[in-house]
Design brief:
12% strand; Son of sevenless (SoS) protein, Chain S, domain 1; Ubiquitin-like (UB roll); five-stranded mixed β-sheet; five-stranded antiparallel β-sheet; Son of Sevenless (SoS) protein, Chain S, domain 2; globular
């Protein structure tokens, strides 16, 4: 089979990409060979005749909403077999369920008045049968793939409209029964919080219980694999509930507006859980002042073992949350405590940390996720023999149980990619047509999320109420509290009986275990800056600050946090999340970090630092090669992406903005103000500067061309500052 680009076809209200597909349908012996009694597959090429068939594949590239909905009924005829799935997964970015349903049923689904082009020339009976099958096919796919679109309590207008249509046009059909059952299911379900597992509000506690700082003895009583399994259980329950369209960049980026406080609740819930795990790690290590150095080191070792168990269970979400917490400023700076952590465990920690290295757009974690997405068990390789033996032993125990495992991803990776796509690609093309090529690119990411959600059905985990109640009871430290406790713990450790000689040798040993020799040089001991905007600990459950680079969707819209950094960069430790959530909230809520790690679970910006968004072929039209997208920190094709933060807020709270070689200061300033939810008309009141270094800035003249005037040899980080 070969494919050939057939160009474009333009119709009223739509543009199509055309691909010619050439397929060999027959190979037979020619006349002379048949006379000799030969068969085609037994003869050389010169004695055979090949017959080919060329078919045309039409894939809509852009169109009006009416054309896109009509294409649901004609896509199979055009051989665009993935169109229905792509449309249903992404249409919420440009239309509402009611608008699509009304067009589908009232305009194209009216069996009496429809003049649907494909069946217009058939007799009325055939027309009705063909249209009935097409409508039923689309509705069946909609209910199968996106039934949550019809959850509109308390009226359920769309579902009732659909039920009325089926009663009139397809009475007593299976579809009618299915819609009736779905309506009853929605009506009977009690309203429950999506983030039920991870909320730490007092309303989730049993009467008489209060939030408390972890008791080290109680925490130590839980076996490492039990903790990992329970964290995985909670992560699986939340990840399976994620509604894929909630992850779309155009939707997720709007979550910080006042009217959208309940937007994308399923994604907020995963972020809340991520931050809850990170904060739990920090509170168990720092919450008890009376701990001795060795006791605190044992708790760190226990969390590293738990992280390793999460790796065996293929739970990359809690794994990253734990690593982010250990890389947070308040934990990382405990240099004396880290000296007491055994060498083998430090090596294990280093290997686990390398999974989330930001090198080459997080290539390691991306490849690992794709490799293990649908595998039955984790593929564990360790450079350290002792760790490898333990890993293989634990993995063998899992295999002996005969229970397959799913994969829980770090959702920030996908949020980052979707936000970058939303930033880089336009919503509309010439003529005001909806850019559906953008939706095809987004679906490549959405399809991966759906695949991983399906894999999570393989988990067989039983909730341990004792641990879950303990986890919910934990009081999370604020960033200021954790930093203060960290200083107290380190000050007490300085009076320890370690001799200078032994201390020096331990520092040397530890530093060589990490990526650089400066690893354990503590950061300047200044209390972390708090963002003027934010809340006290526990105020917001969707905050999300995780330390990972990708969850930080900061990138485009909310770039919340600085990417998680390796131990060699103490000043850039990921912050797990502020009380207000770095990971999940846009600038305004995202900057008050909870405990210290300034990285957010989603860091779109970071993810794109070194390359364009990865592209898969699913949903793409054969023969069409995606163009290179603009990226952060690199000028290519006359465009690039910059990060703009507001003066006075933490630098991790930034917005990603696409600029071209035609953009001047007023244009970029206005877009930056809009992204930060400020009045765009106040352009004259602000100035745009590029951060060159800690003590140098590049100030742009009023009408300067940003693309050509910026320094392309440093990070594309800008500050929007109110003029004096």
């Amino acid at each position: 089979t070969t494919f050939q680009d057939g160009g474009e076809e333009v119709e009223d209200g739509a543009v199509y990409n055309v691909t010619l597909k050439k397929v060999q349908i027959q190979q037979a012996a020619n006349k002379g060979a048949r006379w000799l009694g030969g068969e085609g597959d037994q003869l050389p090429p010169e004695h055979t005749v090949r017959q080919y068939e060329t078919s045309k594949i039409r894939a809509i590239k852009a169109g009006t909403l009416e054309k896109l909905v009509e294409n649901l009924l004609t896509a199979f005829g055009d051989a665009d077999f993935s169109y229905i799935s792509i449309f249903l997964a992404t249409y919420r970015a440009f239309a509402s369920p009611r608008a699509v349903l009304e067009l589908l049923l009232d305009r194209f689904g009216n069996l009496e008045t429809s003049s649907h082009g494909e069946v217009a020339n058939l007799n009325s009976l055939e027309s009705e049968m063909v249209l009935r099958v097409e409508i039923a096919s689309v509705l069946r796919a909609w209910l199968d793939q996106c039934s949550e679109d019809f959850r509109e309590p308390p009226d359920y207008m769309c579902l009732l409209k659909l039920l009325d249509y089926l009663k009139n046009n397809m009475p007593n059909s299976d579809m009618e029964s299915r819609v009736q059952n779905l309506l009853k299911q929605f009506q009977n379900q009690e309203v429950e919080a999506v983030d039920g597992f991870c909320s730490t509000s007092s309303s989730d506690l049993v009467d008489g219980e209060e939030l408390e700082i972890s008791n080290p003895e109680e925490f130590s009583s839980f076996q490492d694999h039990v903790v990992a399994e329970q964290l995985t259980y909670m992560d699986v329950m939340l990840f399976r509930r994620v509604v894929p369209y909630h992850c779309l960049g155009s939707i997720w980026s709007q979550r910080d507006k006042k009217e959208n406080k309940n937007l994308a609740p399923t994604v907020r819930a995963t972020i809340t859980q991520f931050n809850a795990v990170t904060k739990c790690v920090i509170s168990t290590i720092l919450g008890t002042r009376e701990l001795k150095i060795q006791q605190r080191a044992k708790i760190i070792e226990k969390w590293i073992h738990i992280a390793h168990e999460c790796r065996i269970l293929k739970n990359f979400s809690s794994l990253r949350a734990i690593i982010s917490a250990l890389q947070s400023n308040s934990i990382y700076r405990l240099k004396t405590t880290w000296m007491c952590v055994s060498k083998d465990i430090l090596l294990m920690y280093e290997e686990l940390s390398e999974i989330f290295s930001d090198h080459d757009n997080y290539l390691t974690s991306r490849e690992l996720l794709m490799k293990e997405a649908t595998s039955k068990f984790a593929n564990l390789d360790s450079s350290e023999k002792e760790n490898q033996k333990k890993s293989q032993k634990r993995l063998q125990l899992q295999k002996n149980k005969g229970v397959m495992q799913g994969t829980v991803p770090y959702l920030g990776t996908f949020l980052t990619d979707l936000i970058m796509l939303d930033t880089a690609l336009q919503d509309f093309v010439e003529g005001g047509l909806i850019n559906f090529e953008k939706r095809r690119r987004e679906f490549e990411v959405i399809a991966q999320i759906k695949l991983l959600q399906s894999s999570c059905n393989s988990y067989c985990l039983i909730p341990d109420q004792k641990f879950i109640q303990w986890f919910r009871r934990q009081r999370h430290l604020t960033e200021e509290e954790s930093y203060k406790l960290s200083r107290e713990a380190e000050a007490a450790a300085d009076t320890n009986i370690l001799s200078p000689k032994s201390q020096k040798s331990m520092v040397k040993r530890i530093s060589t275990l990490f990526l650089g020799t400066d690893v354990f040089t503590p950061p300047k001991e200044q209390p972390p800056k708090s963002s003027p905007v934010g809340g006290s600990s526990g105020e917001s459950t969707d905050s999300a600050s995780v330390s990972s680079c990708e969850f930080n969707h900061s990138e485009t819209e909310d770039v919340c946090v600085t990417p998680v950094s390796s131990p060699e960069d103490p000043l850039k430790k990921g912050s797990i999340g502020s009380d207000k959530g770095s990971i999940s909230n846009k600038g305004s809520d995202s900057s008050k970090g909870s405990d210290s790690s300034k990285g957010s679970i989603f860091d779109p910006g970071s993810a794109s630092d070194s390359g364009s968004i990865p592209s898969r072929d699913s949903g793409s039209v054969p023969g069409s090669a995606p163009k290179e997208l603009p990226v952060y920190n690199r000028q290519s094709g006359g465009s690039c992406i910059i990060r703009v933060s507001m003066d006075g807020l933490h630098a991790s709270v930034y917005k990603s903005i696409l600029i071209t070689n035609q953009d001047r200061i007023p244009d970029v300033t206005q877009r930056a103000l809009l992204k930060h939810n400020l009045e765009p008309d106040a352009v004259e009141d602000y100035e745009l500067v590029q951060v060159i270094s800690e003590d140098k800035e590049l100030v742009f003249p009023r009408d300067a061309n940003v693309f050509y005037g910026m320094n392309s040899h440093v990070n594309f980080d800008f500050i929007l500052r109110k003029k004096a």
